Amino acid sequence: MTQPIHYWDPSIAPSGMSFVTSDKYPAWRGSLLVGSLAFQYLERLSLEGEKVTYREKLMEGMGRVRNVRQGPDGFVYVAIEGKGIYKLIHN
Predict the structure, then answer these.
(1) Are the beta carbons of 37 and 15 closer than 8 angstroms?
(2) Nearest C-alpha neighbor of 59 from the set 86, 32, 26, 38
(3) What is the model's pTM?
(4) How far apart are CA 37 and CA 17, in angstroms?
(5) Which of 7, 13, 28, 45 could potentially form a cystine with 20 if both were Cys, beta carbons 3.0 to 4.6 Å apart?
(6) Whole-number Å distance between alpha carbons of 65 and 28
(7) What 3-state DSSP class applies to 26?
(8) Residues 32, 17: contact at Cβ < 8 Å?
(9) C-beta atoms surrounding 36 within 10 Å
């Protein structure tokens, strides 16, 4: 058994997780995106090795994040319960 490198207390009820590997988001490359059912946001975690060095809440208040995936086109898509699928455009 190995301890997790990160956990949420209280639990965010994680749903969907994806690493950013695309050139569409150069500042986010290597970040982990995790959806939250309980608090209704998408969280971006910056990692250095096996350590979380920065956390950022995205899409707050939009609804329960059901899934997050990086598509073959390099863009990140986020499924929000009852609303649909959103494509993230980062400036």
Answers:
(1) yes
(2) 86
(3) 0.92
(4) 12
(5) 28
(6) 19
(7) helix
(8) yes
(9) 21
